[in-house]
Amino acid sequence: MTDLTLGRATADRDRLLRLLQEYGVYLGVVVLLLLNTVFTPHFLSAENFRTQAVQVAPVLIVALGMALAIGSEGVDLSVGSVMALSTSLLSLYLGYGAWIAVLAAVAGGIVVGVANGALIAFVGVQPIVATLALMVAGRGLALVLLPQLKDVRNPGMAELGSGDVLGVPYLVLIAVALALLVGFVVRRTTFGRQLLALGDSRPAARLAGLPVRRVLIVVYVCSGVLAAIAGVLATARLTASDPTSLGTLMELSAITAVVVGGTPLSGGRVRIGGTVAGAVLIQLLTTTLIKHDLPPSWTQIAQAVVIVLAVYAARERGKR
Amino acid sequence: MKPTVILRRTSVRTLLATGLVTSLTLVSGCAKSEDDSDKAKNSTSQGDSGQVVASPSAGSGPTCTIDAYGGKKIDLKSATVGFSQSEKEANPFRIAETASIKAEAQKRGVKLLTSNAQSQFSKQISDVQDLIAKGADLLVIAPLNSDGWEPVLRSASAKHIPIVTIDRKINATACKDYVSFIGSDFVEQGKRAADRMIEATGGKGEIAILLGAAGNNVTTERTKGFEDRVKEKAPGLKIVFKQTGEFAREKGQSVTENLIQSKPGITGIYAENDEMGLGAVNALKGAGKKPGTVKIVTIDGTRNAVQGIVDGWINGVIESNPRFGPLAFQTLDSFTQGDKVAQDIVIKDSAYTTDNAKSDIGKAY
């Protein structure tokens, strides 16, 4: 009798724990929103939500690419450098007009993505090492192309950075569209299935006859392109190209968003909704601490706590 | 069969290499940035001499002579000077600093060896040791850190090489381990920024500070000077917000966006460097504020910030003068001739306000 109730209690606890792991990140976002509504003055204003959405957009877009890389049991450390490279190229080609410059920036992202993918798929270098190499090389190249901050005065870029449609900034619209697109690709396309299959087990995917190399290259090209787009948007918002500081530590923010969002580092699973929520959670956390004027060191500690909690949840999931 | 395989492989490699090289040249060759006329404008309008000493070079304060330091007199003209730069020449301050040293060396006809530590302290140590090994008779060092210089100082003092440090101090004994330090007084800069802020706001209201990178003496000293002066002179001015913008424009912008939403009544922002101040301007523009509704005071004196005063967004820029060349070489010159030089040479920084911004923008770097 006692055994039975105990068993049911543990079962209930397990289910609760699983739910928490599954939806904890959404819960975190809701809790932070509620706390801010009560304690932060002027929090409930359209202007504030607009700012938060605009600030989170670049991180979110980078995190989408990172989620794909992590889903394929890899990681892409070069995203921050790709942003820097993208802003350099953008500034360098802006004389031809905004569209050409954006294409050049995205082309930079594609090149880095192909290099990453080729190193991983053909040479067989581990993703963390291959993308680390490109992380160093990309930043270096960006600084060779544009050694210091340069203002961007193109009206098209300024419009992209601060304009809006019916009150929703372009940056946010683009981020949402990309999130939906990546979500669709992961869930509904063959490529998405192949990506998850090879993330689960690369040997099995190869034996099943999946085009492992092609999929890997496409994954890193996607990640590179998304990072390049994030670089363009960040440049438009700042109205300046700053390859010295743009995108520094971005890879860590992106990995944090993905991991907090419940995508396991062991691959085979991608949670786009969770990634979006993870990025929003980190943004809200930082904002809350800034708005209450707490020392900057607290922000780092708070982020560390969130990461540890998320990794703890991931560990439980792995054990299951 | 084998030879062809090898041949094919090498040809693939050559193809890859040539492809890489051509694409690189293409990337930089076809580039067309927004305004290439900028360069010409910069070089013509940069009409400024070096620095002026604020504290007298002899008389008050401890001094140093070549007899006290050890070593022998040399003629600066025939000497080799080694210059070690700390950070990448990626921001206006460092660019102007290196350019000033190089220009002065050229003007005086001195042979100059330069190195750049790329913000890595271990590299700077080996850089300076390299300079000594290459035969530098005199050293000008812009230190990245204040501590950890013992190995360099040992090898320099063994050869009696005079060292002048610029813009940051090293923790060692003046006139024994190094000759003098030439730099700005960051506390004083903070105080003068506070004076500008008090003047602009009328000494009343709530203000915010955009701090520099944490754990940096520039940040702590500029904060201390500002806070002390505000407390002492304008008790009505309340500092209600202190967050780091890490000396970067983007961070300054996002922090200010949050600031003006949570505290819409803010009357002034003190940014500890120009870049963060320009980020704050971006944020205010984005929020639809008019120029001048929030008073901004920054430190450094870059061209963009002084232009910000002309446009009405910034109310004052306290200069932190990077042109160490003339003063550094003058110090070395008098020292090697056997004259007395001060151990601490504090330079006079000017300031830009609404009165002189337009006429003095040529002096900004």
TrEMBL record, chain A:
GO terms for cellular component: plasma membrane. InterPro entries: ABC_transp_permease (IPR001851). This is Sugar ABC transporter permease. It is a multi-pass membrane protein. CDD domains: TM_PBP1_transp_AraH_like (cd06579). It comes from the Bacteria. Keywords: Cell membrane, Membrane, Transmembrane, Transmembrane helix. The chain crosses the membrane at residues 23-44, 56-72, 92-112, 119-146, 166-186, 215-234, 296-314. The keyword Transmembrane helix applies. Its main location: membrane. The keyword Transmembrane helix applies. It is found in: Cell membrane. GO terms for molecular function: transmembrane transporter activity.
Automatic annotation (TrEMBL), chain B:
Residues 32-60 are annotated as: Disordered. It is found in: Cell envelope. InterPro entries: Peripla_BP_I, SBP_2_dom. GO terms for molecular function: carbohydrate binding. Residues 90-332 form the Periplasmic binding protein domain. Belongs to the bacterial solute-binding protein 2 family. This is LacI family transcriptional regulator. It comes from Streptomyces albiflavescens. The gene is rbsB.
